[in-house]
Specification:
Number of domains of chain B: 2
Structural class of chain B: mainly beta
Number of strands of chain B: 48
Number of domains of chain A: 2
Number of helices of chain B: 4
Strand content of chain B: over 45%
CATH superfamily of the largest domain in chain B: TonB-dependent receptor, beta-barrel domain
Largest sheet of chain B: 22 strands, antiparallel, barrel
Helix content of chain A: under 10%
Number of helices of chain A: 4
Shape of chain A: globular
Oligomer: heterodimer
Radius of gyration of chain A: 23 Å
CATH class of the largest domain in chain B: Mainly Beta
CATH architecture of the largest domain in chain B: Beta Barrel
Order of helices and strands of chain A: HEEEEEEEEEEEEEEEEHEEEHHE
Number of strands of chain A: 20
Largest interface: A-B, 53 and 64 residues
Chain lengths: 318, 779
Amino acid sequence: MLINISCERSIEVELPPVDEKIAIKGLFSTDKILSLKVSHSKYIFDTTSTFHLDNVVVDLYENESFIETLKNIGSFYYGLKFVSTSGFKCSERNTYTINVSATGFETVFAETIVPESVNIVMVDTSTVIAELPDWYFGHLGPYNHPVPLLECRIRFKDFSDVHNYYTLQVEKPYLDSRVDSSGNRNWFYNGTKQLPYVSYDQIVEYLINNEDAIIMFEEIYNYEQVCFSDKLIDGEEYELVILLDKNLLKGKTYFKLYSISKEYYLFGKSLNMRPKPHYDPFAEPVQVYSNIQNGVGIFAGASFSIDSSIVFPLPDIN
Amino acid sequence: MKIKILYRYILIVLSLISLNYIEVFSQNITISGFVEDSQTGERLINANIYNSNTSKGTVSNTYGFFSLSFPVGNINLTVSYVGYEAFQKEMTPAKDTMIIFALKPAFEIEEVIVFGSKAERILKSSQMSLVTLPAKNIKTLPVLLGETDALKTMQLFPGIQSGTEGSSALYVRGGGPDQNLILIDGVPVYNPNHLFGFVSMFNTDVIKDISIIKGGFPARYGGRLSSVVDIRLKEGNTREMKGNGSVGLISTKLMMEGPLVKDKISFLFSGRRSYIDVLKKPVEKFDNAVPDYFFHDLMGKISYKLSGKSNISLNYYSNRDKGKEDEEVKADTDDDYSYKRKETSDYGWNTDILALHGNYIVSKNLFLHGGISYQKYKAFSNNNQVEIKTDLVTDSVEITKYFEGYRTSIKDVTAGIDFDFIPSSNHAIKFGMNYILHGYDPDVNAFTVYSQDSIIIGNTGINRQQISARETGLYIEDDFSIGDVIKSNIGLRFSGFFVDDQWYLSLEPRISARVLVSPKWSMKVAYSKMSQHVHLLSSARIGLTTDLWVPTTSRIKPQTSEQYAIGIVIALNEAVNVSLEGYYKLMNNLLAYKEGASYMNENNWENLVEEGKGRSFGVELLVEKTKGKTTGWLGYTLSRSERQFENISFGKVFPFRYDRTHDISLVIIHRFSGKTDAALTWVYGTGNAVTFWTEKFFGIDYFEHRNNIRMPSYHRLDLSLNRHKKKKWGEQTWSFGIYNTYNRINPFYLKYEYDPIRPRIIKVGLFPILPSVTYSLKF
């Protein structure tokens, strides 16, 4: 009897299937040509690895005026990539809408407003010797000892009476290479590349501890970066503090403060939190944000301001 | 605007009270006193006292006291109570008289099992949304593992549901289990459960009366939003020694009562203990899946009738649950090391209550009750792990120890005084106040890692945050009649809560009214505003001992609700009555954990919660047969319960986890003879709403909103048969029961089983078909 009582009994259940919907991943900003990815959702029990989309049409609008139909430039694991063939870049304080249709799917649409950029007033720096956290990997691999770090204080003034959301990206010149017809590898600087950083900023720490407002966009950017709301700094001038590995700094260092839309922020925050219930049985379920009507995914924009006043010697590549 | 309305409300209440004095000053005689059981001396609650000459009557209060006034002259009094022979007397009292009516228990001829209120009382009372259960009849119904349970019986009535399989938690009209004011002799209880909620702490052998109010709350009750469960325990037999005992599948219990001084001082003692931990010992070697678990409860009461007008009682209640599990796991061995892990967990919860109560008849129409009590509730969970890593080459051993602990407790000291003032046959006024000192310790989390040299490697420490608070309540209510057609209860409650240097004050109007449309049917309406200063935080994923009782603070506001109800009651005939009620309830400042938050987080709990609102509405139908050899009822509820939090599901309205669209209960009890009776219960409920990832996009698991899918529906058939046999020393009863007769796997929870080829969702059930047998005796 006791064994009977103590045993669980289980039986498979059928849940009502969920219709597949068009999925969009469109995070865009004023500094890049507008592009997005189109896929479709799958029922959780569908283990097939193929994604089938036919006759996909992506129409882009700015302030309800048609701009263009984005062009399919290729596919990736989950679906198709689309980009503006006219080189269209969004601009701040404008409303952007997309209509996406595909054979066999309900048409979806989404709308977002690109927020006004917030200027970086200035960037102050000083050198500190400190240990980096365990998860930080520099160009030499994980550090186990104190290293020289550049402490950067990025000062900006938040707009009052408006909900603002920010993320910070740090970049350096990107050393590219190409092999010429003679078989020689030629090195040259081509554009910029994202740099990892660490933040021990007080506001950041407080918001992380309150499970509110701070998240790291692991799945959106190459490296983790801070993202926060103006909840505690509304209308104030603030200095965001980060630490950079000095060994990685070459040439100009670009600080890009992005003002992201609320949808962008909610999507990133929920994406960052969603693994928790999978490894902590006590964690509450996390719903990933979606602003796609009749579909799933994200369509959200950002503006930015930049400061590149910090310069380090650029190594000779010849 | 609100203040003006409240001011007018207070004026109306005071006017109605002052009108009483017109009648008081005319030539009236008052009969007052008590109604009690002639064999035991137990005071009877809600006994009817009716004067057919004036067509006026009253009911005895919670302490058996009544007061009935009428013009000088001849009276024809009938005193009646369910299960007792009615008493009738004609007399012509010349002055105010105190009487004790001692009723004889009825022989079990026509009716032995009666549930719900008698049709007439339901019909004529101004109280709606009320369910009453004569305690002795709770034992008839089939139950889980043979454990008769008052709270489980209440779940068989419309508007009251269980949450999960086997649980005795109550979800009343879309409210949570923390929103029920569960009172034992007037003392609120926080956690009334044993065995993870499968059994409640209430030993049915010591219960005298139990009722639940789901709406139209009189002003004397406050502090919870959704229901009042008022449990009154016996005082103890003042005439002779009596006892009950029973031996069941999982526990045994004994109750003894009797006079210490006949007709003056009585005692009542009961104890119950489970023996799962004892019975598992022989099979431990073969199957250690059953934890070392036990529960017990104790109740002791001494009642002293100081005089015909006053009595005091000293009460003690205690319940304990404790479990322990040991596990030794040999983990994988690799080329260099072998790993072994030992884990010991223990968990449990306790409640202790000590209370002193006193009653006094101040005058012919003024009754006083006062009391003080102390309560301590504590829940804890400890987990110790030892990991042993052995170097296969050198034989050196590295030991690492982990400790994780959780403790939470509440201490309450309560003092209260209540008055019943019955100035005339048309008015019954209650007023009083209470004061509670609360001490909360809601959030203790410790995680310590020791190396083999007992050096602490990591320690999150104890996140101890003790909160003291003071709570007070003042109320006044008048239950009055306007002619024979209209009866109403109008009241006002003031509640105050002081915490973190801040007061939370609320005025709570309460109104209920009955219109007797014909002798056979009445219509009722009610409105209540309620507030609640304590919240139960439950994980959306896991319940049980992780539930945390937390108070209102300077950051966390009190919960509030407003409920509107309307209904009709029809007495089809003497045996059958029908009640149909609709309700609409709005709730504010409900608490839930934020998305991603974990109760095991070392953060302060206030940072882990969201405040939001809820709404529930529904229709309840109850058809009862209360007389004859076959009795029972059919209950049906059609309802909807929703929640909305700004940062859960991005502010979308989502179904409450225990939202149950359809809820059906069928109860049939048949008495074959004085020796044999049988019962059947069948229940059906729409499955609970749970959160499950149902889609994926870009490799991201996704669900559309919180509680997006429904578990399969729940239904179950239980049967019972009772065989009674009178003996020289008393009576013995063999009770046979079958729980879940057709062996349905009802969902306890759902889990996702990953498989690259064929993932699936599994419904995990807990209780298969479970026969039970219980032997009990009365002596």
